[in-house]
Task: inverse folding
């Protein structure tokens, strides 16, 4: 990826050509490519973005064309089983994302690989390659930011790093905190930020068993590949860390105190609370500049969190200037996450030139 000719090529006045690389081709990666195929004309007509996909990569290899993959081949890639994209004509089994980045001159890397908190290094390397050469990164992967936001959200890289898909999926909370609250002092963000646990605690109220409820959340595409990340609060801690980083207080998920987990006992508690007209919610609390924690709390009908059901998320934002702001919306699911990525791609296209 050279600096020469990087980024936005004026196809015709007011038009920009954006070359995208997609790392990760599971549930969300495929949903993103599907949405891109469906919306590429809208991106062109409404935003003047002529988008092409230079590569898609899964765990086994890469399918790449420097000049952009034909849309028909991309449509075909959506039909192959997991780990199969490099088996398609012109694919490169064994090729790494790093090699694909070097070979294709992309403007925007879309990272939809699963969040691996104990080993975020490969992704960090990709980000440094792309951001370091003037490109942009759009990510749904929480691990790089939740572990190393101090080195990623620097003055020069922050404007080209888009990550609203990492928190509240289809609800643009991060945009609101990044831009909507500019110049203000946010003191605390508190709320339900994990769709899986909110969904399964709701099933507990209906009397469903723990294992069965988790299988249901997995089937719906809410849960992480390893659902213990959801149940033990790692996913919530990562989101708390990303919120704190966004609000100018760099931290990592490892410093978020995890006070409780969602297990059989929590299921019992949720059922019992529900019988008394109350609900148990698994929340994250970010006290900006002071610390964050994850905990199970019981809420009454008077709480705005009481009516947040299923995979919905909601947060209450307290600032020093005005009354609290509540944001509610979808927090998990392949389509909601893909929509957040598409929106960030539109924002990224403005920044790479
Ligand atoms: N597993 C996550 C959740 C996905 O349930 O909220 C969205 O980050």
Result:
């Amino acid at each position: 990826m050279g600096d020469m000719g990087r980024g936005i090529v004026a196809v015709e006045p007011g038009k920009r050509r954006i070359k995208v690389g997609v790392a990760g081709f599971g549930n969300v990666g495929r949903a993103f490519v599907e949405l891109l195929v469906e919306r590429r004309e809208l991106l062109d007509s409404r935003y003047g973005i002529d988008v092409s996909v230079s590569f898609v990569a899964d765990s086994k290899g890469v399918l790449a064309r420097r000049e952009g993959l034909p849309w028909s081949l991309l449509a075909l890639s959506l039909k192959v089983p997991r780990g199969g994209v490099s088996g398609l004509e012109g694919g490169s089994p064994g090729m790494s994302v790093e090699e694909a980045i070097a070979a294709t001159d992309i403007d925007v890397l879309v990272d939809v690989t699963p969040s691996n908190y104990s080993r975020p290094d490969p992704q960090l390397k990709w980000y440094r390659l792309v951001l370091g050469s003037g490109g942009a990164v759009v990510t749904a992967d929480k691990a790089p930011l939740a572990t190393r936001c101090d080195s990623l959200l620097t003055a020069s890289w922050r404007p080209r790093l888009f990550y609203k898909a990492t928190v509240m999926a289809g609800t643009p909370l991060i945009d609101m905190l990044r831009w909507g609250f500019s110049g203000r002092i946010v003191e605390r963000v508190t709320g339900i930020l994990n769709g899986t646990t909110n969904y399964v605690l709701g099933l507990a109220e209906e009397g469903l068993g723990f294992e069965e409820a988790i299988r249901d959340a997995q089937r719906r595409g809410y849960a992480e590949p390893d659902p213990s990340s959801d149940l033990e609060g790692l996913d919530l801690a990562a989101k708390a860390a990303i919120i704190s980083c966004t609000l100018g207080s760099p931290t990592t998920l490892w410093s978020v105190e995890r006070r409780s987990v969602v297990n059989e006992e929590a299921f019992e508690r949720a059922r019992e609370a529900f019988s008394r007209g109350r609900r148990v919610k698994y929340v994250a609390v970010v006290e900006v500049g002071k610390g964050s924690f994850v905990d199970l709390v019981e809420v009454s009908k008077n709480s705005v969190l009481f009516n947040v059901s299923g995979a919905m998320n909601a947060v209450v934002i307290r600032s020093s200037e005005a009354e609290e702001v509540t944001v509610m919306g979808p927090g998990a699911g392949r389509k909601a996450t893909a929509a957040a990525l598409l929106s960030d791609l539109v924002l990224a296209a403005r920044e790479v030139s």
Notes: Residues 169, 194-196, 222-224, 230, 235, 331-332 surround L-homoserine (CB under 6 Å). Residues 27-47 form the longest helix (21 residues).
